[in-house]
Design a protein that fits this description.
Length: 838
């Protein structure tokens, strides 16, 4: 044991006298090691170099002192936070219970503008997207209380077991101003010179993540900003504007990046939140609103895209409009745009006050619990009318307390709205919040039930058009649905590819000439003509053939001669010769030189049923194919040519996955009879998860991974049902469903180009279920078919449980349109059933 390890039983570092650093500056935090980490289930301290990981026990002795990490361990993940800025740090050394960090892999830096607490939270990763990481506890310290101590310090893990050793130091920046080159800035979506550009500053000089926004500037505005920064807003659930720098003729305001992404993006992914989770989020938002109202007199600012999550799963209200409101002078102080579903008094032009935020809180809670805004309409221009006039109905399926608080918050008369008489205390006292300790909540002592693992950079506005912005354009159809097959499709039922037909000539026999030069000859029984065949090299040749080819005298034909003869006979149409040649023991599972086809594939492409049967009888494998031709397998070639007889023979010899690929091709070609033949012979309508090649799994230090793993399913593994839906082929959808196609089947990475369709508008539900893409493309009759066959609209998007795949977010307006459309379709079916029974 080292001297440092001997200190693991000591108490955390005692707090020294306060020191006041010169601000701003850079705080460097270094993680060294942790010991005894546990979820609290075990009382005994584990062996430093042995532990259970992933269900199997293994030794770490071989890794002791080694720079390479143990790939079997699930090392804890660490989140280091200072002044709302969070930096995740991965660990690659040590053990699960006693991890260690080496060099710069355990280091992070923060830009410091005010004195606050440093928090280090640790999580045990489950290794699956289907389950949440386990919270191991956190360590807290005020680094500027003992900054003079340069030696590493042991900190106790709160709400868990173990200790962690860290060190930190601070460097004042003096009067130095920040510049663009101090950051690795990435600009998304718009040009650098446009106002409102969002930047993400990652791993720059400060090795922390910040969000920035560009503003037009003048001397007066610059003077205001420089005198007011950092923002005086300081609340556990709000990310403040921290610093600025000039970028050409613009001013970039920056705040800590909420790395958990937009709350309502997670809502889109998970359909809706349960009551406990919704209560937790609404309570934290309520505390932040109380602070903004009482301390800064900021009202009616809250909107969905301003509500994000931090890396732990707590609420983080973000938006540079807060800072603009903070520094604005005079009345009204609101300089921001309308929320999506503003309170009626805002629509009517009445004065802003805190009651408008209680309305927005009710709008949020309703959407969290039901998955769709109360006044949703596909046409944003109609939403304002619904807010003012539509009857407010809360689902009876919600708990009574939830129904009551939503009704109270969404009272159109602000004087009678919940909170009008007793303010925030009246809202907090509602039975919906029963059991919440508000003091514990404001200290962030409640552990969130959900820990996000990605950052979403944008959330679209869909609602009442914002001020200062034109209303959004009406939704565009990806293609004209009156055409079943767009004109740019590469193949249709009327344009199948046929090979040139070769006339069979059975007057020829095969002769082996044993005299020099040895070789095969074709002999015409009618004319006595002979044709010699020159041996040709082929790609597939056994080691025995290679040895035999080097001998000076050959007593039997070798593989080269057999394949050269087979190729010549195929080209000439000498089927009788081919039958005789097979008696010499030809290996049919080879690719014939520049043709690249196998003999069986060649026969299927040329629609020669007798040869297909002959090759199968003599050992040809229908599952032996080629990788660089459009028709990889014989069955695929038979389907492409539309030859049902050959297809029926081959599908009995072909693997399940090849048969389903063939069914996909039949759907692509709108070949109903062929699709029905395949289905009648038991071909399955879906692929299995294991059919796809597993994504590339990079190592911990592998940075070149962008081109080595698929972002979705390969083209051939897009299920036949999705193809029929995208093509708008109602008859094909009906056929597939009648033979057991799963109406709830999911997919990943659907795109036009994978189906050889060139469209500017991408499919928004690139990862989803069949009914999602049907509704997105407004295939309403197909939606009805799917519902009739068991499609469940409450199922979320499927999860591909691999680390290297992330489902692309669906734009909020599209997701809501699809969800609202599906609910309307289900309601219409129920009404129809009721009318029939009545």
């Amino acid at each position: 044991m080292t001297e440092d390890n001997d200190k693991k039983d000591i108490n955390p570092t005692a707090i020294m006298h306060n020191s006041t650093p010169d601000l701003p500056g850079i705080l460097t935090v270094t993680l060294h090691e942790a010991v005894g980490l546990s979820r609290g289930a075990e009382s005994s301290e584990p062996d430093v170099y042995k532990e259970y990981s992933g269900g199997s026990k293994h030794s770490h002795n071989e890794f002791k002192g080694n720079i390479f990490p143990c790939t079997a361990c699930r090392f804890p993940q660490t989140l280091v936070e200072y002044d709302k800025c969070q930096t995740p740090i991965n660990c690659y050394w040590g053990t699960t219970e006693s991890p260690s960090w080496k060099g710069d892999y355990g280091k992070c830096k923060f830009y410091v503008t005010r004195i606050t607490e440093l928090t280090i939270s640790l999580y045990h990763p489950t290794g699956s997207k289907l389950s949440q990481d386990v919270f191991l506890g956190s360590a807290r310290v005020r680094p500027f209380n003992a900054l003079e101590e340069c030696t590493p310090k042991w900190l106790a893990i709160e709400d868990g077991i173990g200790m962690i050793r860290i060190s930190y130091d601070y460097t004042s920046m003096g009067n130095k101003k920040l510049k663009e080159e101090d950051f690795d800035g990435h600009f998304y979506g718009v040009e650098r010179k446009q106002s409102g550009c969002i930047t993400q500053n990652t791993k720059g000089k400060f090795e922390a993540m910040y969000a920035g926004k560009l503003f037009e500037t003048d001397k007066h505005f610059l003077s205001q900003v420089s005198s007011e920064l950092p923002s005086r807003i300081n609340h556990p659930f709000i990310c403040p504007t921290t610093f600025y720098f000039q970028l050409e003729e613009r001013l970039s305001l920056n705040s800590p990046l909420a790395i958990g992404g937009h709350l309502f993006s997670h809502l889109l992914e998970q359909q809706y939140f349960d009551v406990d989770r919704s209560r937790f989020y609404i309570a934290e938002i309520l505390c932040a609103l109380e602070y903004l109202h009482d301390e800064h007199h900021i009202f009616a600012w809250l909107k969905p895209r301003s509500v994000l999550l931090d890396g732990m799963g707590h609420i983080a209200l973000c938006g540079f409009g807060l800072f603009i409101s903070e520094i604005s002078q005079g009345s009204p102080r609101r300089q921001h745009r309308l929320p999506e579903y503003p309170a009626p008094e805002l629509l009517l032009g009445q004065n802003d006050n805190r009651m408008a935020d209680w309305w927005t809180l009710g709008i949020f809670l309703y959407e969290m619990l039901t998955g769709l805004p109360l006044f949703y309409d596909e046409d944003p221009e109609k939403i304002a009318d619904k807010i003012l006039n539509q009857t407010i109905e809360v689902p009876e399926s919600l708990p009574r307390a939830a129904q009551d608080i939503i009704t109270g918050l969404l009272c159109r008369n602000p004087k009678q709205r919940l909170g009008a008489k007793g303010g925030v205390s009246e809202v907090k006292a509602h039975p919906f919040f029963e059991g919440i300790d508000w003091h514990t909540l404001i200290q962030r002592k409640y552990q969130p039930s959900f820990k996000p693992n990605y950052y979403s950079s944008h959330l679209e506005h869909h609602g009442v058009p914002e001020s200062l912005e034109p209303p959004p354009s009406p939704p565009l159809l990806p293609f004209n649905l009156t055409r079943r097959y767009p004109e740019h499709r590469s193949y249709t039922s009327a344009s199948r590819t046929h090979q040139v037909f070769i006339q069979t000539d059975n007057n020829w026999d095969l002769i082996w000439e044993d005299s020099h030069p040895q070789g095969f000859q074709f002999y015409n029984r009618a004319t006595g003509e002979k044709q010699s065949i020159l041996p040709q090299a082929v790609e597939s040749i056994t080691s025995e053939d290679a040895v035999q080819a080097n001998e000076t005298y050959i007593t039997v034909p070798d593989q080269r001669q057999k394949l050269a003869t087979l190729k010549e006979a195929l080209q000439a149409g000498y089927d009788n010769v081919i039958s005789q040649l097979l008696g010499y023991g030809v290996n049919l599972n080879v690719r014939m030189d520049e043709w690249r086809e196998t003999p069986l594939l060649w026969a299927a492409q040329h629609e020669n049923l007798s040869l297909v049967r002959l090759f199968l009888e003599n050992g040809a494998d229908a599952n032996y194919g080629t990788s660089n031709l459009e028709d990889q397998y014989a069955l695929i070639a038979a389907v492409r040519t539309g030859n049902q007889q050959i297809a029926e023979v081959l599908l009995k010899k072909s693997r399940r996955v090849i048969c389903t690929i063939a069914l996909s091709l039949a759907v692509d070609q709108n070949d109903g009879p062929m699709a029905k033949l395949l289905l009648e012979n038991g071909v399955r309508c879906e692929f299995e998860e294991t059919d796809r090649n597993p994504p590339y799994e990079p190592g911990p230090f592998d940075t070149d991974t962008c081109c080595h793993f698929p972002v979705g399913e390969e083209e051939e593994f897009i299920h036949p049902l999705f193809r029929a839906i995208v093509y708008g082929n109602e008859d094909m959808v009906r056929l597939l469903l009648s033979y057991g196609a799963d109406a709830n089947v999911g997919y990943h990475g659907l795109a036009w180009y994978k189906l050889k369709m060139d469209r500017e508008e991408r499919i928004k539900f690139e990862c989803g279920r069949a009914i999602h893409v049907a509704m997105e493309l407004r295939q309403h009759k197909i939606v009805e078919l799917l519902l009739e066959n068991g499609a469940d609209i409450n199922l979320g998007r499927p999860i591909w449980d691999v680390r290297t795949h992330s489902c692309k977010l669906v734009p909020r307006d599209v997701f809501q349109r699809v969800r609202a459309g599906l609910r309307a379709a289900v309601a219409a079916r129920e009404e129809k059933k009721t009318a029939v029974t009545a």
